[in-house]
Amino acid sequence: MKVAVAGTGYVGLVTGVCLAENGNEVTCVDIDENKIARMEQGISPIYEPGLEELMHKNKERLHYTTDYQSAYEDADVIFIGVGTPEKKDGSANLTYVYRVVEQIAETVRKDCVVVVKSTVPIGTNDKVENLLKNNLKHPVNISVASNPEFLAQGTAIRDTLHASRIVLGVEDKLAEDTLRTVYAGFKDVPLLITNRKSAEMIKYASNDFLALKISYINEIANLCEIVGANIDDVAKGMGYDARIGDRFLHAGIGYGGSCFPKDTKALNWLASYNDAELKTIKAAIEINEQQKLKLLKKSRKYYPDFTGLTVAVLGLTFKPGTDDLREAPSLVNIPIILEDNAKVKAWDPVGQENFRRKFPDDITYCDSIAETLKDADICFIFTEWPEVRALTPEDFLTSMKKPIVLDGRNCLDYESFHSSDVIYESIGR
Ligand code: UGA
After folding, report:
1. Which band of pLDDT confidence, cut at 50, 70 and 90, is reported for residue 157?
2. Rounded to an integer, what distance in angstroms lies between the CA atom of residue 281 and that of residue 294?
3. Burial readout 43-71 (b: 16 or more C-beta within 10 A, e: otherwise)
4. Cβ distance 251 to 236 under 8 Å?
5. Which residue is catalytic, options 18, 259, 379, 411?
């Protein structure tokens, strides 16, 4: 099939590359000339393990362009994979989606299926269909389908090629048949056909459920601290129950990233807009905001403020395996630490350059963990990079002025740290 993909972020590019891997002829469209030029040279604009290798492997079937006209006019299928960032009121900003829709309407010259892959509020696909039909320049038949994505950053290729499910929200046979052909290569992946609104809801309900699960375990972790239980054991004990499952029960300083924070707020907004209330999601959002400050609260018993102290920070990104800083706990905590006039030293294996762009002057960026810890009065762990997980009490004891370690990801071995001379605190243990 001849496929065009609008947007070359995580959703668009990974989708395009994986569809090419399964035999489709794919053109990726973006407005950013610089990005397109880099992709033509085989360089991925996002940090995603395995992506460049797959771009290279499928280079005969993958094309990149800023010229949307040439990409859309004779495509069988056009995927929309542009961002839907959060607006100030918590709702999803659909400007980029609708801009692509207008471009498609003015361009297409043959019957095709337009597939919304971006995460969009329930009912958006209907609006996309109306917008297309009202603005078509040429007499063609267009079907609109919803096909949400479930990939996570860092495992995006595996999550797409071996997806947990492919959800196709369709209202007509053309859309269903065309998408079945596009996805024919994804043999071992369950396919669920629904109507468009259900498909749109599946995406939000899935992400918000995972966010809720994290906020739930974080709240239980906070209670574990008070009553003397250990959240690691509690989560393990819960996880054996297949009805609960053992994933996304890892307590810490809260979820970040470009999806959970945005999608919980967007669904909450949609509910209140329709005079409904999502009490569970509201609670998940509130708990997460408080959780992000949990380490800082713990630190206050050691230092009421950080004036004149050296603070070491390990990990800046919202999770390991990505250079993405969006909604990362580091972004909430570091400005508060800086306001105290602390000297902040930070390390992150891939997120450092992005962080430097936001905070160019106030932070000393270090090349190694040892350099970061040297002479520090306290250490905050915000991301569980493998290099951080591998640290032993000795690493902190030999470098820090005062070995106070606050582990926001429960990534260090509790027993060895607790029995060492390190003053060690984590979440719910
Ligand atoms: C998430 C979902 O996992 C994907 O299924 C979804 O497709 C994607 O959003 C999206 O909508 O695009 P992602 O944001 O890449 O993927 O990251 P996750 O691995 O889900 O982690 C999100 C946050 O939750 C991270 O900050 C992570 O540290 C935190 N988390 C995760 C926990 O605190 N505890 C856990 O047990 C799991």
Report:
1. very high
2. 20
3. ebbbbbebbeebbeebeebbbbbeebeeb
4. no
5. 259
Q: How many CB atoms lie within 10 A of CB 9?
A: 16
DSSP per-residue codes, 34-62? HHHHHHHTT--SS--TTHHHHHHHTTTTE
Mutate which of 150, 260, 265 for ligand 1? The one with the most ligand atoms within 8 Å of its CB, which is 260
pTM: 0.95
Q: For residue 210, how far is its CA from the centre of ligand 1 (angstroms)? A: 8
Tell me which residue has its CA closest to atom 18 in ligand 1.
152
Q: Which atom of ligand 1 is nearest to the CA of 327?
A: 26
286 close to 297: Cβ distance less than 8 angstroms: no
Q: Which two tokens stand for residue 361?
A: 């002057």
Beta-carbon contacts of residue 242 (< 8 Å; ≥ 6 apart): none
Q: Tens of pLDDT along 250-278?
A: 999 999 999 999 999 999 999 999 999 99
Q: According to the model, what pLDDT value does residue 230 have? A: 97
pLDDT band at 35 (very low <50, low <70, confident <90, very high): very high
CB 303 within 8 A of CB 331: no
Contact call for residues 8 and 39 (beta carbons, < 8 A):
yes
* Upper half-sphere CA count for residue 175 (Cβ side, 13 Å): 25
Q: How many helices (H) and strands (E) are present in the chain, helices listed first?
A: 19, 14
Residues framing ligand 1 (Cβ under 6 A): 119, 149-153, 207, 210, 214, 248-250, 252, 255-257, 259-260, 318-319
Strand partners of residue 350: none
Q: Taking each helix axis from N to C terminus, what angle separates 124-135 and 196-227, rounded to the nearest 10 degrees?
A: 150
Alpha helices in 108-255 (DSSP H): 124-135, 156-161, 173-182, 196-227, 231-239
Whether 259 is a known active-site residue: answer: yes
Q: Which of 11, 319, 388 to mutate to test the pocket of ligand 1 (most atoms within 8 A of CB)?
A: 319
- 113 touches 141 (CB < 8 A): no
Structure tokens, 201: 């809801």
State mean pLDDT over 367-372.
98
Summary mean pLDDT of the chain:
97
Residue (of 91, 90, 89, 71) closest to 80 by Cα position: 71
